[in-house]
Amino acid sequence: DSLLQELVSEFGNTMKLVHKSLERDGAGSIVLVPEETEDMWHAFNLIQEGDAVRASTIRKVTTESNTGSRTSDRVRTILTVQVETIDFDTQACMLRLKGRNIEENQYVKMGAYHTIDLELNRKFTLQK
């Protein structure tokens, strides 16, 4: 069995499994929704450096007008980062995943660093 299949069977019992797409070579992706505090601990043990995680996040975006004045707004967007560091904030019950953006969108360039906060009841996609 592949690592992802093992993870699905192990954690699928606790965390809400929304979707799974597994390849024969063990690669693939799963969409999960952590619903309880314990699910965040499972997610922490599930996600490894080098994995890709896609989730909704807030990004501060600075725009410059024609006159040269700058304004910055906080924008909700969906990003996919290749995980480099994983921190578990037990007080806030959230995971902080820092990595480089690997899918360009209108707010974030390819390769730009971003930290995604995984929170309870907010789905995320894990690609192995």
Can you give keywords for this protein?
globular, 7-stranded antiparallel sheet, 128 residues, mainly beta
Q: What is the tally of beta strands?
A: 7
Mean pLDDT: 86
Q: Give unreliable regions as ranges.
A: none
Helix count equals 2
Structural class: mainly beta
> Main sheet, how many strands, which sense, barrel?
7 strands, antiparallel
Q: Strand percentage, roughly?
A: over 45%
Question: What does the secondary structure layout of this molecule look like, with pairings?
Answer:
Elements: H1 3-11, E1 16-22, E2 28-33, H2 37-46, E3 52-64, E4 70-89, E5 94-101, E6 113-118, E7 124-127
Antiparallel strand pairs: 1-2, 2-7, 3-4, 3-7, 4-5, 5-6
Please provide a brief summary of the model:
With 128 residues, this protein is mainly beta. The chain has two helices and seven strands, in the order αββαβββββ. A hairpin with a 4-residue loop joins strand 4 (70-89) and strand 5 (94-101).
Describe the 3D structure:
- With 128 residues, the protein is mainly beta.
- 15% of the residues lie in helices and 50% in strands.
- The protein has 2 helices and 7 strands.
- It has helices at 3-11, 37-46, and strands at 16-22, 28-33, 52-64, 70-89, 94-101, 113-118, 124-127.
- It has a 7-stranded antiparallel beta sheet with strand order 1-2-7-3-4-5-6, with helices on both faces.
- A hairpin with a 5-residue loop joins strand 3 and strand 4.
- The protein is globular, with a radius of gyration of 16 Å.
- The two termini are 14 Å apart.
- The model has no long low-confidence stretch (mean pLDDT 86).
